[in-house]
Amino acid sequence: AQSVAQPEDQVNVAEGNPLTVKCTYSVSGNPYLFWYVQYPNRGLQFLLKYITGDNLVKGSYGFEAEFNKSQTSFHLKKPSALVSDSALYFCAVRHVYGGSQGNLIFGKGTKLSVKP
Amino acid sequence: DAMVIQNPRYQVTQFGKPVTLSCSQTLNHNVMYWYQQKSSQAPKLLFHYYDKDFNNEADTPDNFQSRRPNTSFCFLDIRSPGLGDAAMYLCATSRPQGARFTDTQYFGPGTRLTVL
Fold this sequence. Notes:
- The complex is a heterodimer.
- Chain A is mostly beta strands.
- Chain A has a single domain (about 5-115), classed as Immunoglobulins (Immunoglobulin-like, Sandwich).
- Chain A is about 0% helix and about 50% strand.
- Chain A has strands spanning about 5, 10-15, 20, 25, 35-40, 45-50, 55-60, 65-70, 75-80, 85-95, 105, 110-115.
- In chain A, strands 2, 5, 6, 10, 11 and 12 form a six-stranded mixed β-sheet that branches. In chain A, strands 3-9-8-7 form a four-stranded antiparallel β-sheet, with no helix packed on it.
- In chain B, the strands form two sheets. In chain B, strands 2, 4, 5, 6, 9, 10 and 11 form a seven-stranded mixed β-sheet that branches. A four-stranded antiparallel β-sheet of chain B has the order 1-3-8-7, with no helix packed on it.
- Chain B has strands at about 5, 10-15, 20-25, 30-35, 45-50, 55, 65, 75-80, 85-95, 105, 110-115.
- Chain B contains no helices and eleven strands.
- Chain B is globular.
- Chain B is mainly β.
């Protein structure tokens, strides 16, 4: 079964410091991986995705993610965190086999808190 | 700007009273999704339309129905809302292009449903 795990419920970072939000996946075949951010009482905003090619994917708002096939990880990173980055972050993998083809499988989310 | 719009943003209904949530899009995407998201949890897919083809998730209760009268609009009908149906309901759209399952889903701001 395909799945995605976000091992941290919450990540705390000081403003200006680098941040990492972790994601690991389990899929059959090539993974299609996505990161979304959700601010309070809002929908999900797309940040970036990995389909193929360069392992380092750059996205919106200065975020990037590194695809690591051997570690089955797709961690979200930013070199310098902002207080406005505080939000809920979801990693997702596309379901490519079986009865729910095409569906996004979300991790449980990681709450990022950036303190001034 | 092209976007996904959900109305209303906040909806209050009474236990057992039918309610309809609306989603419209100006992206001209042919796939539209409805998700249910309970407090700080991952979104859960209820169903989706690929053009006019309706695809229901196996565990979506019969209480939830959907209509898509045209490309731009999609409705979520809850026939007899229970207290457990209080949640954020998210609409998303995508346009499959090229390789399968690489398209990005774009989300609306959501409708928060309260059941009294």
